[in-house]
Amino acid sequence: MKFGIFLGLAIAATLPVVAMPSLAQRQTSINELRQSSPGITLSGRVVSVVGNDFILDDGTGQIIVDAGPRWWQEIEISEGEELTVTGEVGRSGELDAFSIVRSDGSVMNIRPSQGPPPWAGGPNRRN
Q: CB–CB of 22/50 below 8 Å?
């Protein structure tokens, strides 16, 4: 039994140590996105805005960012603006925003990263 433990420790000691970045530190390019990736942070330039949806371009590709319904919270985003968005890729392939940071550092909180969005159930839902 002691030999097995020693052998296991010897093998573990020879494996390389890889430092993994935390989700908050990892910057993802749009080209690398995967639908199952949670907690994605993207930075880029806004190329088009329709309501609370906008297209973000980081130089590797473009993605539609969904910042929730306008009846819940209307955001003011302008074409050409540089933003950092944290969110998750939804079923439709859009990035569902949790938060948006402007180039001046101001933060727009859109929704919590866990659980359903606060607007789930529509504008006539029961609280």
A: no
Summarize pLDDT for 56-98 with one digit per residue, the tens: 999 999 999 999 999 888 999 999 999 999 999 888 889 999 9
Strands 82-89 and 40-50: antiparallel
Supply the DSSP symbol for 118: T
Domains in the chain: boundaries = 21-109
8 Å CB contact between 84 and 110: no
Burial status of residue 56 (CB atoms within 10 A of its CB: 0-12, 13-18, 19 or more): buried
> For 21-109, CATH number?
2.40.50.200
pTM reported for the whole predicted model: 0.66
Give the whole-angstrom CA distance, residue 114 versus residue 16: 33
Q: What angle do CA 25, 39, 96 make, to 5 degrees?
A: 130
